[in-house]
Structures are given as C-alpha cells and as structure tokens.
Amino acid sequence: MIPSLTAAPAWQSVGVDDHAVAAGLAAEAGRLLVEIRAQGGAAGDKQSNELLLRRLAEVRPDDAVLSEESADDGTRVRHERVWIVDPLDGTREYGEPPREDWAVHVALALDGVAAVGAVALPAAGLVLHTGEPPVVPAREPGPIRLAVSRTRPPAAVDHLVRHLDAALVPMGSAGAKAMAVVRGEVDVYAHSGGQYEWDSCAPVAVAAAAGLHVSRLDGSPLRYNQPDPYLPDLLICRPEFAGPVLESLATA
User: Fold this and answer.
1) pTM (2 decimals)?
2) Helix, strand or coil for residue 155?
3) How far is CA 16 from CA 24, 46, 125, 189, in A?
4) Pairing with 123, which of 33, 87, 109, 244 sits 20 to 30 Å away (CA)?
C-alpha cells in the first residue's frame, strides 16, 4: 500500500536507502495526483514533476535527474547515479476518472542499470518497489495473457497473437501494463511502438526485483542514462515465457 505521509516522512531522513526514497517519492506524487485529478492531465504532469524535482534536490542533491517533463541538457551522462522519473505515466487515463491504469515512475539508474525503482498506481492505492520486491502470484491455467495498449497496439502484439495464440488484455499506461505482469494479471508485456527511458526504467527495476524477465525485444539488456533517452522497445514477462516470446519475435 502507499506509505503513510507525515510532515517529516521517514524516507527523507539522513541515511535512508535509495529504495525507500523511490517508494516515498512515488507515494507522495501519487497522493498529490489523486488530490488534484479534477484539474486534468496537464496540471498533473506539471505539479507532480515539480514535486519530484524539489524532493530529489532535497534528499539527493548530488544526483542527476532525467524527467519526461523537464528539459534534458545532457549533463546527466557524466553521472553514475541518475534518477529517471515519469511524473504521470498515462495522462490520457488520468484524465478519465475513475480509471486506475495510470502510474508514477521513480527510478535510480546506477551505471546505466535500472537498479532501484518504484511504480505507484495511485488510484489503486498501491506502490510496488524494489525495497520490498513483490511476489509474483502463481499462474492460473489458460492461454498466454498479453497486455496491450487500449488505443495503440504495437506491431509486435499482432505477431505474438498469431504465433502464441495469446489472449489480449487491453489497458492504459506502460507502468500499469508492466505492473499487471508483476501482479499476475497478465503474463507478457511486449512493446515495440516507441518509448523513452522514463517509460520503462522504474517498471523494469521493479519487475526484475520480482524475478521477471526484462529485456529489449531482441533479448539484449536494457541500458539507461544514454545520451539519447529514446528506448523504443521492451519485454517484461514471466520467466517461463521468455524463450517462446523471444523466439517468436525473432521471426517477426
């Protein structure tokens, strides 16, 4: 559940670890977004971003930050520690209450690896994070369940449906789809339609900590804090499906 917030949250204390910082930040931004939801997505993006940047400057002043909602001057690539945030993942869904399939992403990339992360699903009252890695539920029998965008299904999805006889489960934001795999609601999230580092860094950190397979669609590692933050494809899935999915995609 979302950690309770006080005037001096524990995650702001000196010496608190990065996992607690990520979870606390995602929780606080999520709480703000719930409170101001009636103002719409533009206000949500702006105010959540301002909150995250302010808090990071307070608790991790020596670290660099890459945010979807802030200009990127490129100086971050000289840092080993870079916070990568998406203040509001799923602006469309956020603007359609009572939809729950939107998220807040807070991650820390260490030497290019998504090492720390938290994904808040504020409308569902959840924060999934690497400090307490989620336990992926046992899978129910049935066809492979494939998370897919409700508005923009990528080409990889059509290929997987044909080759793996997968069942589609439409939903909104990237974070919501990734966390649906973590929560056992779907088995595979494959994306090929174009993303940026802030779309996947926190979800990848959480999914990897939970023991799921994470990679690019060709099976290569996901690398973060690159000079160009464009990171167009992503695979998060249960480990037992990684081989069949990657083999199928190799023939696309």
Assistant:
1) 0.93
2) helix
3) 11, 27, 23, 32
4) 109
- How many CB atoms are closer than 10 A to CB 110? 14
Neighbouring residues of 114: CB distance < 8 A, sequence distance ≥ 6? 84, 107, 200, 201, 202, 204, 205, 208, 222, 224
Cα dihedral across residues 168, 169, 170, 175: positive or negative? negative
- Residue type at 183? R
> What are 237's strand-pairing partners?
188, 213
Contact 147, 177 (CB under 8 A): yes
Residues 6+ apart with CB under 8 A from 61: none
Binding residues for Mg(2+): 68, 86, 88-89, 199
CATH T-level assignment (fold) for domain 10-129: Fructose-1,6-Bisphosphatase; Chain A, domain 1 (3.30.540)
What span, in angstroms and rounded, lies between the C-alpha atoms of 12 and 24?
A: 8
pLDDT, tens digit, for every residue of 168-191?
999 999 999 999 999 999 999 999
Rounded-to-integer distance, Cα 70 and Cα 49, Å = 8
The CA–CA distances, whole Å, from 72 to 49, 61, 67, 111, 116 equal 14, 17, 8, 18, 21
Contacts of 211 (CB under 8 A, 6+ apart): 133, 136, 239
Q: Where are the domains of the chain?
A: 10-129, 145-249
Output the CATH code of domain 145-249: 3.40.190.80
- Residues 122-134: tens digit of each pLDDT: 999 999 999 999 9
